[in-house]
Task: inverse folding
C-alpha cells in the first residue's frame, strides 16, 4: 500500500473516541473494514479498500428510506464518501475502469441530494476527480458520466466558496489531462459552449441557471465566479471558441461593476498574452477589433481600479497585433501611445506604473518602417513622424508641472525607448536608432542627475545604465563626458563619476576604446594619486584610487565577444594587465573577470550556444567565424597567460585563490596538449623539489605553503592531462611521502588529487593494489584528511571486480567509524561510502572469505554478495570492544535500513530490529543515543506488522529513559512515543506499558498532544480541510527522519497562546502628490525644470544642515559652541536604569517568559539578603552625607569629559582631535525633561 495512503488513514484511525460525529464515524467505519480484512485474511490495499467501500455504499443505499439517505454529520453515507474520496486516487486505473458502471450507478444519482450538504458533496467531487483521471476516450462518452460532469460544471458557480473551488479544480484537472493520444479533452468544447452561454446570460442581464445551493446573488457576483473559473481553464479550451469568449468579455465592463470590469480586462489580458506566444490562436483575426474596442473604452481620470488593467489590455493587444502583422500594427502605434500617455498624470501610483508598462509594450511595436521615417527627418525641422513626436513629447514631459509626480515613470519610459530603438540600418558598425534619435533626451537625464535637488537619482542611474548597455561608453561619453580631472573642475563642469559603475555591464563598444580612452585616463589619475600622497593629502589620494578601481571594474564589459580583440590585445596591453595582476591586488578581480569573459564569450559564440550570453550581447553579437578567429588568437597566448596566472595563484591569499583558479581552468581548457604537458612538467618538478625539502626540514611554513599551492594547481590542470601524465601523477600522489606527510594540507590535497583522477577515468588504477597501499598509510592519516580519504574510497569501491568483493572488508571498519566523526562533511562522505558499498554488494558477486587477512578458518566458504550479506558484515561491529564502535555500527545500520528499506528481506529487517532492541537497555549512553535514533527511524520506515509483535519489549525499554534529562533522552523518548502513537494507535501502545508510573508518561504525552491540537484548531474553521504548512527540511532525507522531525508539541502548558500586537501597515500608495521644494536662496520657475523643483516627500519638517548646532550658545570671541552639561538628565537616566534593574532582581520584581507570560520572582533568602544590603548602602550613603563626609560613590563620566582641561576652564585638543569632533550634537542638545521617579522611589 502506498505510504501516502497509509499516512492519511493513520490520521483517521485514532478518532474512534472523538466527540465530533463527522470524525468518529469515518474512523469507526475504517476499523470495521480493517477488521473484516483480518477475518478474511485479505491484504489491505487500495483496491481492497475501494471494493469494500463500494459494497458498503451499496448496502447503505439499499437500507436508506425512500425519502433519501440521511446525510448528517454522524451518518454512514458521508463517511463512506469521505473514505472513497481518500482511497480512489491510489487505486490503479484499470480497477477503476473495471468498476466504472457500478461506481457511476451508485454515486451519480446522489448529486441532487448532496447539493444542500457541502461536506459530503465535496467528498463526492473528490471521488469523481479521481475517476475522470483514470478513464479512456470511449468511457467518457457514457451518459451517466457526461451528466455528472455537467452537474460538476454547474457547481463552479455555486455561492459556497469551498464547493465552488473544488468543482473548479476538478474541471481544470480534467481538461488539462486528456486521455492519450488526444491533445485536447473531449469535454473541452462542452466547457467552452457553457462558458459562452453563461457569459451571454450575464451580458443580457438574465439570471444564470446553475444547479447548486440557491443564494441571494446577483449577476455581477455570478459573472465574477465565472471569470475566476475561466482563468485557469483558458489554455485548455478549443481555439475556435476564443473569439466568442473574447467578444463576451469585451461587453462585461459596460455593466458598470468596477470589480467585474477589472476581472474581465485581466482575463482578456491573459488571452492576448497567449495569442503572442501561440501563432494558431483563434483570436488573431479579431485583434484589430479588440484594439478598437479597448481604445474606445478608456477609463475615467478618477477610476484608479480599472485604469491599471485597462492599460495592461492595451499593451498586450498591441503586442499580439505586432506579432501577427508588424506593419499593420504600425498604424495603431500613435493611437495606442496617445491613449496610454494620459494615465501618467494619475495620482495613483499603480496606474502610473501600469501606464509606463503599457508604453513600453507599445514601444516594442516600433516597426522598421516607423524607425526609418523618424531617421529620415532632419535635426532642425518639426517632427512629423510617429517616433519623432513620441521623443519630443517625452522630452517636454520632464518640464511639465502636470507630470512632476511621474518622473519615475518617465525615466522608465525613456529606458524602454532606448531599449526598443536598438535598430541598426546596416552592419554592426552602423549607429543605432537610439544614438541618432535619443542622445539629446539622454543628455537631459544626465543633466538632471547632477542637480543636487533632483530626488530620483537611482531611477536616473537605471536609465543611464540602459543607455550604457545599448549605446556603449564610446557613444555615451561623447554626450555625457566624465569631467573628472582637475581641469574640468576648474572650468566649472560637474563631474559624472556615477557613470563609472555602469561600465561593467555588457555593451557593444570595442575593446580598443578602453585602451585608447580609459588606460591613459587611469595613468593620469594614478599620477594625481601619487602627487596627493606625497603632499600628505590622503583623502584626495583615496578618491583618485577609488576612481581608478572603478574604471578597471568596467573592463569586463568590453570583453563580451569584442570584434577588435586581435588588434586591441597587443603585447603592450597584455604586459600592462600582467603587471597589474602582480602589483595591484585591488584591481585583480576585475582583470581576472575580463580574462575569463574573453574566453567564455568567444567559445559560446563559436559553438552557436548563445544562451550562455547576456541578452544585450545576443542582440548584437559577432559572427561565429570571427569568434573562432578570436579563440585561435587566444589559444596562441594560453601558455604565457597560464605562467602569469600560476604566479598570481601562488602569491594570492587563500580567499582569493578560488577566483584565480577559475581563470586558470578556463585558459587551460583552450590550451593545446603540448602547452598543458609543459605546464604539468614544471608543476610536478616543483612539487617534488618542495616535497623533499618539506620532509627534511619540519615546520618550514614557506615550503609547506609552496607544496600545497603546487598541488592546488595540479588539481586545476587535472581534467586536461593525457592518460600517461594522469597515471604518473596518480602513482606520485599514492606514495607515503604524500599521504603520510606531516603537513595536513599536503595529505588533504593528495587524497583530493587521487579522487579526481579516479573520477576522471584517465589514470590506470589497480584497485587491489591501491586499497592495500591505502591500508598501509592509514596509521599516518591526519584528521583533516579523512573527508578526502573517504571520497577517494567512495570512487574506488565501484571499480572493485565482482570476484574481489572481499576487499571491502578492509574498508568497512574505517567507514563505520567515520559516521561518528566530529566533522559534518566527513560524516556525510562516510555515509555515502557505506551506501555505495551496499549498492556494490547488491549488484552481486562473490565474497572470498579465505582471502581476507586474519580469518580464523583458512577454508572458509565463499559467500554470495547481497544486501543481507552486507548487513551481516556491517553488524559484526556490534561485537566491538569499545562503545564507540558499537554506537558507530548502530548509526551505520540505521543509514542502510533507511536507504535499502525496500530491498532488504523481511527476515533481515526483523533480525536487525530484534538485535538492536537489546541495546536499548544498555548502560552506556553513547550506545543508547544511537539506538534511540534507530528506533525512531524504524518506526518511520519499517512495516507496522513487523514492529507490532515487539511493542511489548520496546515500550517498557523506552519508558526506562523517559525521565532521564541527560543527553535530551526524555525529549527523544517523547518524540518516539508520539510517532508510535500515530503509527500503532493509543490502545496498542498503552497496553504494552507495564507499571503505573510508565502509564502516566503515556497519558501525559496524549494530553499534551490533545492540547496541541486544541491550540491549532482554536482559530481555525471546523470545515477547513487544507493541510498545514510543512516544516522546512534540511535537504537530507535521512537527517530529517533521524533528527529533523522534532515534537510537534509545545513545552508550554498554556492552552491559550499569547496575543501578539499587530503592527498597522502603512499605505503603499503615496497619494499625497507632488509638493514644491522650498529654497530660501533661489527663485523658482515652475515653467521650466519642474522635475528638479518638486518633491514627493511629505510636508513635515525637514531636517536642515546645522539644525542641531543652532540650539547651542556660541562664544562671541571665538565663535565656538558652548555646551552645558545636563546633570539632571543624566540623573534621570541613571534612576530609570536603577528602576529597571530593581524590577528584574528584587523580590517584588518579575520577568516575562518567551511566550509573554509573567513570572514573579521568588522571595528567597538570597534575594532578601541582597535587598537588605542595598538598603544598607543607601542608608550609609545618607549618613555620610549628613556627617559632612565625601561620598565615595563613583560618578558617571559626562559627555566630552576626555577633552576637559585639567588646569583651565575650557576644553583642549587630545591626540590632534578637536573637542567637538566626536560629540553627538543631537545627544548633547537633548532638552531637559521633568524629573521622574522610579518604581523603587529613587530619583
Result:
Amino acid at each position: 500500500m502506498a505510504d501516502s495512503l497509509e499516512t492519511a488513514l493513520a490520521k483517521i484511525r485514532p478518532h474512534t473516541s472523538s466527540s465530533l460525529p463527522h470524525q468518529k464515524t469515518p474512523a469507526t467505519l475504517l476499523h470495521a473494514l480493517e477488521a473484516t480484512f483480518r477475518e478474511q485474511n485479505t491484504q489491505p490495499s487500495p483496491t481492497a479498500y475501494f471494493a469494500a467501500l463500494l459494497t458498503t455504499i451499496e448496502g447503505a443505499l439499499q437500507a436508506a428510506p425512500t425519502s433519501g439517505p440521511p446525510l448528517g454529520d454522524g451518518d454512514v453515507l458521508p463517511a463512506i464518501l469521505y473514505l472513497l474520496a481518500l482511497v480512489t486516487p491510489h487505486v490503479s486505473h484499470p480497477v477503476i475502469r473495471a468498476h466504472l458502471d457500478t461506481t457511476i450507478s451508485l454515486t451519480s444519482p446522489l448529486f441532487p441530494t448532496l447539493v444542500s450538504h457541502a461536506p459530503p458533496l465535496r467528498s463526492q467531487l473528490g471521488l469523481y476527480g479521481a475517476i475522470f483521471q483514470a478513464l479512456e476516450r470511449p468511457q467518457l462518452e457514457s451518459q451517466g458520466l457526461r451528466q455528472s460532469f455537467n452537474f460538476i460544471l454547474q457547481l463552479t458557480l455555486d455561492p459556497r466558496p469551498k464547493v465552488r473551488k473544488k468543482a473548479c479544480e476538478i474541471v481544470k484537472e480534467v481538461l488539462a489531462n486528456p486521455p492519450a493520444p488526444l491533445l485536447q479533452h473531449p469535454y473541452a468544447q462542452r466547457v467552452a459552449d457553457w462558458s459562452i452561454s453563461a457569459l451571454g446570460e450575464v451580458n443580457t442581464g438574465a439570471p444564470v441557471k446553475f444547479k447548486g445551493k440557491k443564494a441571494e446573488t446577483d449577476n455581477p457576483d455570478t459573472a465574477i465566479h465565472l471569470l475566476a473559473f475561466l482563468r485557469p481553464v483558458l489554455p485548455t479550451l478549443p481555439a475556435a471558441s476564443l473569439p466568442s469568449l473574447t467578444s463576451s468579455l469585451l461587453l462585461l465592463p459596460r455593466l458598470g461593476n468596477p470589480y467585474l470590469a477589472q476581472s474581465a480586462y485581466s482575463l482578456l489580458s491573459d488571452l492576448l498574452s497567449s495569442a503572442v506566444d501561440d501563432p494558431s490562436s483563434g483570436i488573431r483575426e479579431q485583434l484589430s477589433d479588440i484594439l478598437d474596442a479597448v481604445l474606445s473604452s478608456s477609463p475615467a481620470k478618477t477610476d484608479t481600479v480599472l485604469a491599471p488593467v485597462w492599460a495592461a489590455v492595451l499593451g498586450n493587444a498591441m503586442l499580439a497585433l505586432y506579432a501577427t502583422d508588424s506593419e499593420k500594427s504600425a498604424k495603431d502605434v500613435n493611437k495606442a501611445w496617445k491613449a496610454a500617455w494620459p494615465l501618467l498624470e494619475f495620482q495613483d501610483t499603480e496606474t502610473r506604473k501600469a501606464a509606463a508598462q503599457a508604453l513600453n509594450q507599445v514601444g516594442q511595436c516600433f516597426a522598421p518602417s516607423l524607425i526609418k521615417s523618424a531617421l529620415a527627418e532632419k535635426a532642425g525641422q518639426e517632427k512629423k513622424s510617429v517616433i519623432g513626436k513620441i521623443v519630443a513629447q517625452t522630452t517636454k514631459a520632464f518640464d511639465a508641472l502636470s507630470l512632476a509626480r511621474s518622473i519615475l515613470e518617465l525615466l522608465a519610459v525613456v529606458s524602454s525607448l532606448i531599449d526598443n530603438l536598438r535598430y541598426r540600418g546596416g552592419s554592426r558598425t552602423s549607429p543605432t536608432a537610439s544614438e541618432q534619435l535619443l542622445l539629446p533626451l539622454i543628455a537631459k537625464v544626465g543633466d538632471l542627475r547632477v542637480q543636487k535637488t533632483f530626488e530620483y537619482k537611482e531611477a536616473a542611474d537605471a536609465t543611464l545604465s540602459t543607455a550604457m548597455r545599448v549605446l556603449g561608453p564610446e557613444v555615451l561619453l561623447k554626450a555625457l563626458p566624465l569631467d573628472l580631472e582637475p581641469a574640468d573642475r576648474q572650468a566649472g563642469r560637474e563631474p559624472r563619476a556615477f557613470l563609472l559603475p555602469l561600465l561593467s555591464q555588457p555593451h557593444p563598444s570595442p575593446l580598443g576604446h578602453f585602451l585608447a580612452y580609459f588606460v591613459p585616463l587611469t595613468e593620469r589619475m594614478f599620477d594625481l594619486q601619487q602627487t596627493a600622497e606625497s603632499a600628505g593629502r590622503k583623502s584626495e589620494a583615496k578618491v583618485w584610487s577609488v576612481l581608478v578601481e572603478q574604471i578597471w571594474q568596467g573592463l569586463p564589459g568590453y570583453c563580451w565577444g569584442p570584434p577588435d580583440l586581435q588588434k586591441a590585445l597587443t603585447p603592450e596591453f597584455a604586459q600592462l594587465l600582467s603587471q597589474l595582476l602582480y602589483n595591484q591586488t585591488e584591481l585583480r578581480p576585475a582583470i581576472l573577470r575580463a580574462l575569463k569573459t574573453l574566453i567564455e564569450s568567444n567559445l559560446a559564440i563559436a559553438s552557436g550556444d548563445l544562451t550562455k550570453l547576456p541578452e544585450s550581447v545576443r542582440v548584437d553579437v559577432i559572427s561565429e567565424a570571427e569568434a573562432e578567429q578570436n579563440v585561435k588568437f587566444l589559444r596562441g597566448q594560453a601558455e604565457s597567460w597560464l605562467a602569469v596566472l600560476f604566479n598570481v595563484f601562488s602569491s594570492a591569499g587563500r580567499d582569493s585563490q578560488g577566483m584565480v583558479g577559475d581563470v586558470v581552468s578556463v585558459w587551460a581548457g583552450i590550451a593545446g596538449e603540448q602547452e598543458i604537458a609543459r605546464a604539468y612538467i614544471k608543476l610536478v618538478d616543483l612539487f617534488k623539489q618542495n616535497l623533499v625539502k618539506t620532509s627534511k626540514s619540519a615546520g618550514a611554513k614557506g615550503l609547506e605553503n609552496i607544496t600545497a599551492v603546487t598541488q592546488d594547481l595540479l588539481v586545476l590542470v587535472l581534467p586536461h592531462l593525457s592518460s600517461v601524465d594522469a597515471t604518473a601523477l596518480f602513482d606520485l600522489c599514492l606514495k607515503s611521502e604524500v599521504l603520510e606527510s606531516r603537513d595536513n594540507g599536503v595529505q588533504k590535497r593528495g587524497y583530493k588529487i587521487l579522487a579526481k583522477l579516479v573520477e576522471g577515468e584517465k589514470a590506470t588504477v589497480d584497485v587491489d593494489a591501491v586499497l592495500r597501499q591505502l591500508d598501509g598509510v592509514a596509521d599516518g592519516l591526519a584528521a583533516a584528511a579523512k573527508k578526502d580519504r573517504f571520497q577517494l574510497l567512495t570512487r574506488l569501491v565501484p571499480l572493485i571486480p565482482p570476484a574481489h568483493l572481499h576487499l571491502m572488508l578492509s574498508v568497512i571498519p574505517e567507514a563505520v567509524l567515520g559516521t561518528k566523526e566530529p566533522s559534518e562533511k566527513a560524516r556525510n562522505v562516510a555515509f555515502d561510502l557505506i551506501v555505495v558499498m551496499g549498492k556494490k554488494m547488491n549488484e552481486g558477486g562473490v565474497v572470498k572469505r579465505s582471502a581476507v587477512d586474519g580469518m580464523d578458518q583458512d577454508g572458509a566458504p565463499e559467500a554470495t554478495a547481497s544486501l543481507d550479506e552486507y548487513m551481516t558484515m556491517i553488524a559484526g561491529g556490534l561485537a566491538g570492544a569499545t562503545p564507540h564502535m558499537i554506537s558507530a555500527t548502530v548509526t551505520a545500520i540505521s543509514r542502510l535500513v533507511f536507504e535499502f528499506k525496500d530491498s532488504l528481506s523481511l527476515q533481515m529487517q526483523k533480525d536487525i530490529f530484534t538485535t538492536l532492541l537489546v541495546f536499548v537497555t544498555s548502560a552506556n549512553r553513547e550506545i543508547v543515543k544511537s539506538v534511540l535514533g534507530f528506533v525512531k527511524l524504524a518506526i518511520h520506515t519499517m512495516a507496522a506488522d513487523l514492529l507490532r509483535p515487539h511493542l511489548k519489549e520496546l515500550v517498557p525499554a523506552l519508558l526506562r529513559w523517559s525521565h532521564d534529562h541527560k543527553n535530551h533522552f526524555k525529549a527523544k523518548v517523547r518524540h518516539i512515543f508520539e510517532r508510535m502513537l500515530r503509527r500503532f494507535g493509543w490502545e496498542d501502545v498503552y497496553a504494552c506499558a507495564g507499571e503505573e508510573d510508565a502509564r502516566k508518561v503515556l497519558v501525559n504525552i496524549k494530553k499534551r498532544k490533545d492540547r496541541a491540537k486544541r491550540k491549532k484548531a482554536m482559530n481555525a474553521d471546523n470545515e477547513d480541510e487544507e493541510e498545514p504548512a510543512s516544516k522546512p527540511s534540511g535537504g537530507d532525507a535521512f537527517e530529517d527522519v533521524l533528527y529533523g522531525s522534532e515534537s510537534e508539541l509545545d513545552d508550554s502548558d498554556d492552552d491559550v497562546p499569547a496575543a501578539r500586537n499587530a503592527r498597522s501597515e502603512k499605505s503603499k500608495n503615496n497619494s499625497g502628490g507632488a509638493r514644491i521644494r522650498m529654497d530660501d536662496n533661489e527663485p523658482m520657475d515652475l515653467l521650466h525644470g519642474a522635475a528638479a523643483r518638486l518633491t514627493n516627500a511629505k510636508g513635515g519638517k525637514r531636517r536642515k544642515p546645522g539644525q542641531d548646532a543652532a540650539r547651542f550658545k556660541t562664544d562671541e570671541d571665538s565663535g565656538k559652541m558652548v555646551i552645558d552639561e545636563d546633570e539632571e538628565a543624566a540623573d534621570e537616566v541613571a534612576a530609570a536604569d536603577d528602576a529597571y534593574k530593581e524590577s528584574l532582581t528584587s523580590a517584588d520584581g518579575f520577568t516575562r517568559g518567551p511566550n509573554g507570560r509573567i513570572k514573579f520572582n521568588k522571595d528567597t533568602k538570597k534575594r532578601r539578603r541582597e535587598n537588605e544590603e542595598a538598603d544598607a548602602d543607601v542608608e550609609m550613603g545618607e549618613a555620610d552625607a549628613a556627617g559632612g563626609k565625601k561620598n565615595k560613590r563613583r560618578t558617571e563620566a559626562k559627555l566630552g569629559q576626555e577633552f576637559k582641561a585639567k588646569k583651565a576652564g575650557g576644553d583642549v585638543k587630545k591626540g590632534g582631535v578637536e573637542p567637538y569632533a566626536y560629540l553627538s550634537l543631537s545627544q548633547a542638545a537633548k532638552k531637559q525633561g521633568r524629573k521622574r521617579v522610579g518604581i523603587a522611589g529613587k530619583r
User: Anything to note?
Assistant: Residues 511-534 form the longest helix (24 residues). The chain is about 60% helix and 0% strand. The first strand starts at residue 846 and ends at 847. The chain has a mean pLDDT of 80.
